Amino acid sequence: MNNLKSRVFTRWNAICLVSLHSGCFYWQGLDAVEENVAPVIRDSYPKEGEELVLSNLNTNVFVSVYEENDLTSIIFHWSLGGQFLGGGTPFPVTNDSVTGSSIILTPDPAYDGQVLTMQVYDGYGASDSISWDVVV
Q1: How many whole angstroms separate alpha carbon 70 and alpha carbon 97?
Q2: d(CA 115, CA 80)
């Protein structure tokens, strides 16, 4: 049996080398690859384009995100004035495709004029982001 395999391989190799100068390719069945869809910010407080006014003792800022592919791979990054604040507090998943994150900010005068940014990433590196100008 090994001798038969050896002869078949030798014939295939010889035909391959003679007929295809650039090499041989073995085509197995192809698997369908799904296209990754980036996460989408669906809702936020404050709304996109509004200022974040910090006048209360604690201000809760949140985003909700729709992720078509895999909610378990979602990563949230909150930053203020370029300083990383962490991933925030995750929301419980309300259905198969929506999750969220929130942070609480206090009215610190050092925050005035800064930009609060939230970036959300999926496991494939696709992302969405939102930013607010902070007013104290």
Answers
A1: 8
A2: 6
Query: Starting at the edge strand that comes first in sequence, how are the strands of the sheet with 40-45 ordered?
Result: 40-45, 59-66, 98-105, 89-90
pLDDT for residue 118:
98
Rg (CA), the chain: 26
For residue 59, pLDDT beyond 50: yes
Class of residue 76 by CB neighbours under 10 A (exposed 0-12, middle 13-18, buried 19+):
buried
111-126 in b/e form (b: 16+ CB < 10 A) is beebebbbbbbbeeee
| Residues 6 or more apart whose Cβ sits within 8 Å of residue 50 | 132
d(CA 1, CA 4): 5
Establish how many alpha carbons lie within 13 A of residue 121's alpha carbon, considering only the half-sphere containing its beta carbon: 7
Q: Which two tokens stand for residue 31?
A: 């698997």
pTM across the whole model: 0.73
